[in-house]
Amino acid sequence: MHFLITIPLLALLCLVLPYKYRFLAVIIFAILCNIPFFNHLSLCDIIFSFSADFSLFSLIFFTLFIMQSLSKKQICFINQKGILLYIIFSLCIFLSFLGLIPIELYYLDARYSIALAFIIIVVMYFFDFILASLLAVSLLGYGLSLFDYSNTLDYLFDAPSLVLFTILWLKQKLKWQK
Question: Which residue of 42, 81, 102, 136 shows the fewest CB atoms closer than 10 Å?
Fold first, then answer.
């Protein structure tokens, strides 16, 4: 599963590089980050040893983000309200995981965790249909047991997607105010 680390790395690269250099840089970087260079370990292997597993949602979203940023049509396929709502939900789940808020959201029973995920998807539907659809596909991935995660919310939320959504939200806010 270490090669899946390539997807968030490419999404971060697409976020930073101008459009003119993206396509060639993405191809070269995808090859280079999977070639072993240190003790038979690639960059993806090294990052995988430090990081937790990625959620299915983030892998799907990062893939769509890369495809959107490589196209000539620059459309924003998610809106700012959806990004902000995802940041809020993800931050609540993350802070609950760390024990920094008194509400036990992450450590709920499986039935309640699925109900919480469903409620988040329904609320997200009213703000951003695409994000709600991606979250629903991720919940379906939990039902199909695509990964070895024991918690439903591990399919929907993780720290790299929280970081990327925060960067996207700040980038849109700064661009909007200029």
Answer: 102
